């Protein structure tokens, strides 16, 4: 049973229709796209619209997850879902190994340098298919910080605080 106070997390975004049977192509935003196979339904959000759809079947095509929803049986119906966020209830997210974090949990964290100087707030984490980049909005400018284990001293999600120790010359303050 879904309650209004439930929180949701994005696991993908519908980019377009796939084929002519009402399937949609989803770009996963999870590092574990296989998790889609465990779902019976998902929530979709597009602008002010928010609703739940039951999954008929799922398959993979290249780097995309292809989903067929019950009741979506044509290209036109599938096209209406384009640009929808694919969401699950936060309580359904996987437990991660130690020192691994969900991007949503990092957004809004305050970033301090190891000398205790305040840098700014995390506004986005960019997946580069290599070392992710943490975008931090400071008072005067934005910073792009490599999410390298060698430079991240500590992440305290309860305090919403990240302590960062950049290599010399990385930051101009």
TrEMBL record:
GO process terms (BP): ribosomal small subunit biogenesis; rRNA processing
Residue ranges annotated for the RimM N-terminal domain, each copy included: 11-91
Pfam family, one: PRC_RimM
Subcellular location: Cytoplasm
GO molecular function: ribosome binding
Main localization, broad class: cytoplasm
HAMAP family cross-referenced by the UniProt entry: Ribosome_mat_RimM
Role: An accessory protein needed during the final step in the assembly of 30S ribosomal subunit, possibly for assembly of the head region. Essential for efficient processing of 16S rRNA. May be needed both before and after RbfA during the maturation of 16S rRNA. It has affinity for free ribosomal 30S subunits but not for 70S ribosomes.
Official protein name in the record: Ribosome maturation factor RimM
Originating species: Halanaerobium polyolivorans
Gene name of the record: rimM
